[in-house]
Write a structure and sequence with these properties.
about 325 residues; mainly beta; Immunoglobulin-like; eight-stranded mixed β-sheet; five-stranded antiparallel β-sheet; about 10% helix; DUF11 domain-containing protein; signal
């Protein structure tokens, strides 16, 4: 596999993988845009008759990640149901929306835009679940403010004051305390590090070889990310790249398997890159190179450790 370093081609490959697996890709707001065009001729409900308030958001550490839920109370003061309400969430730095209850069709990551389920007259609860890229800490931390806005889809550019609520997240300490939190400021630039183990070469009954190269991806800080990607290449002649173990979707790049797709600071994930080498391959020492990245077309804080190269020996 020929090594690639251009963000555009890597991005195209990643979008194909994401589409195949149902990942939400930032910038995929075309569906909402198209719906808005269809809605241009609908007489809008008075925006002042929708309002939203937010409850507290506390995220607790589960040993690997921070997770927490926030309830939004969405009130429809109109006498009839509203079926085209839109929820837009400006996510506080360092947090990520994981799931929503009471809204669907979400796109984007910063902000997140969703269609709200039909709002009957009265108050409806929408639950927003968040995670955090933060590493654990012995003291509680508080994020900068985010916001949530609920409007009719055709009027998202002109929300009233009642249609917007501000909120922040509190990251509980490792002991569970939320008292006296200090300001939380995540890193701005991703820092992915790769390391590799020793390659294994196994001869098959037909004379071919299977090659296995173990790689570990480490998230070295708490900058926002969506997925870690790896791109393997090799000098092995006529080798066939057969995938990864654990299995992950691949095109010219592969996502690093694991759940959730994003990683938090200090989290590491291991994956093996697999090749098949045909019978009759000349004995010798070859190489497998693996390049890793979080966000395409963006800098990495320490690019020197984004690439690992491992020697592979085909025996006599």
């Amino acid at each position: 596999m020929r090594a690639l370093r251009t963000g555009r081609r890597l991005r195209q490959a990643a979008v194909i993988v994401a589409a195949a697996t149902g990942m939400v890709v930032a910038g995929a707001g075309a569906a909402h845009a198209a719906t808005a065009q269809l809605d241009r001729h609908v007489v809008p409900v008075n925006n002042d008759h929708l309002s939203v308030t937010s409850g507290p958001l506390v995220l607790s550490y589960d040993g690997t990640h921070y997770f927490g839920d926030m309830r939004l109370s969405v009130t429809n003061d109109n006498p009839t149901a509203v079926s085209d309400a839109n929820l837009s969430i400006n996510v506080p730095a360092g947090l990520v929306v994981t799931t929503l209850s009471g809204a669907s069709g979400c796109v984007g990551s910063a902000p997140v835009s969703c269609g709200v389920d039909t709002l009957q007259p009265g108050t409806t609860t929408v639950t927003v679940s968040f995670g955090s890229f933060a590493a654990p800490a012995g003291r509680a931390r508080v994020t900068a403010d985010g916001s949530a806005t609920v409007t009719r889809l055709a009027n998202t550019a002109h929300p009233s004051a009642r249609e917007k609520t501000r909120f922040h997240g509190v990251l509980a300490s490792t002991s569970g305390s939320v008292s006296h939190p200090v300001a939380y400021q995540p890193a701005a630039v991703n820092d992915l590090g790769l390391s590799a183990g020793t390659a294994s070469v196994t001869r098959q009954d037909d004379g071919s070889y299977t090659v296995r190269v173990p790689v570990t991806a480490l998230d070295k800080n708490d900058a926002a990310n969506q997925t870690a990607w790896i791109e393997p290449s090799t000098t092995l002649p006529n080798a066939t790249f057969t995938g990864t173990d654990p299995a992950a979707p691949c095109t010219i790049v592969c996502s690093v398997p694991g759940s959730p797709s994003w990683m938090s600071s200090g989290e590491s994930r291991s994956v093996a890159v697999l090749y098949t080498v045909p019978a009759g391959t000349a004995p010798g020492v070859y190489e497998v190179t693996v390049y890793g990245v979080f966000n395409f077309d963006e800098d990495d804080a320490t690019p020197a450790d984004n690439t690992v190269t491992v020697s592979v020996t085909i025996p006599e």
